[in-house]
Write a structure and sequence with these properties.
Number of helices: 6
Shape: globular
CATH architecture of the largest domain: 3-Layer(aba) Sandwich
Strand content: 25-35%
Radius of gyration: 20 Å
Largest sheet: 8 strands, mixed
Order of helices and strands: EHEEEEHEHEHEEEHH
Mean pLDDT: 83
Structural class: alpha+beta
CATH topology of the largest domain: Trna Endonuclease, Chain: A, domain 1
Length: 230
């Protein structure tokens, strides 16, 4: 194999957590983080519009001083892979008593529904973050970002500006050697609540106070949430 080669689409969001790179790539968005403060990562925080997958926190003396919301979006599938699995086992000469090899139901990536659902959820969430003057980051694979750019109005979503409330980080899965892959940051874009609304031509409202979110985040802080690079 010559050089680096991108691999197939990611359907498991945990694959995006490799080496904690996505959190490292959000550190610059903690604009009020100070030396001496701790970094924490907490999961599944409920906000208007749904849960946010992760929060990267800047914590000093057990108090949250700053935070960034991080949403992971892998690709959903449609149909069932089971008949294809049965046909593969038959081809490899592996005996199986279960039927189903004759089924030819389709199986594939549900690009359209995944993209629309993700953008609608972001539109509900970003109003909250923008009101609080905080940042929300969508982490996706590069091929999924390319699909959204083709299918939705992304002409106004440009190279990342730190002052924007909505950031999009796209990653490549790159083959380094045989059976060895690496997650690498490919592109950073940003916009704001109005920009996400423009993608979908939708409107939503979110009204939650900063103190309420801080209380939820601080209740989740522990030694287990401490962010380290090892």
């Amino acid at each position: 194999m010559h050089g680096k080669q991108k691999v197939s689409t990611i359907i498991c969001p945990h694959r995006l957590l490799e080496r904690k790179q996505i959190f490292t790539d959000c550190l610059h968005l903690l604009t009020t983080h100070q030396p001496g403060s701790e970094l924490h990562v907490v999961t599944e925080v409920s906000l208007p519009g749904g849960n946010v997958d992760y929060f990267l926190l800047s914590v000093n003396q057990s108090k949250v001083r700053d935070f960034v919301g991080i949403e992971l979006q892998a690709l959903d599938t449609t149909g069932t892979v089971w008949p294809e699995r049965k046909r593969l086992l038959k081809y490899l000469g592996v005996e199986t008593n279960a039927g189903g090899n004759e089924s030819h139901k389709s199986f594939g990536i549900n690009w359209k529904m995944t993209a629309k659902t993700s953008l609608v959820q972001l539109h509900h969430q970003i109003n909250t973050f923008e009101k609080l003057q905080k940042k929300l980051v969508l982490v996706v694979q590069d091929c999924f970002l390319s699909y959204m750019q083709r299918q939705f109005n992304f002409a106004h979503v440009n190279q990342a500006i730190i002052g924007d409330s909505m950031h999009i980080h796209s990653y490549q899965m790159v083959m380094q050697a045989e059976h060895s892959y690496k997650l690498t940051l490919e592109e950073r874009l940003s916009t704001d609540a109005a920009g996400i609304a423009k993608c979908l031509d939708l409107q939503a409202e979110a009204n939650v106070e900063l103190e309420q979110i801080i209380q939820v985040l601080e209740s989740k802080i522990s030694e287990a949430t401490l962010f380290t690079l090892v």
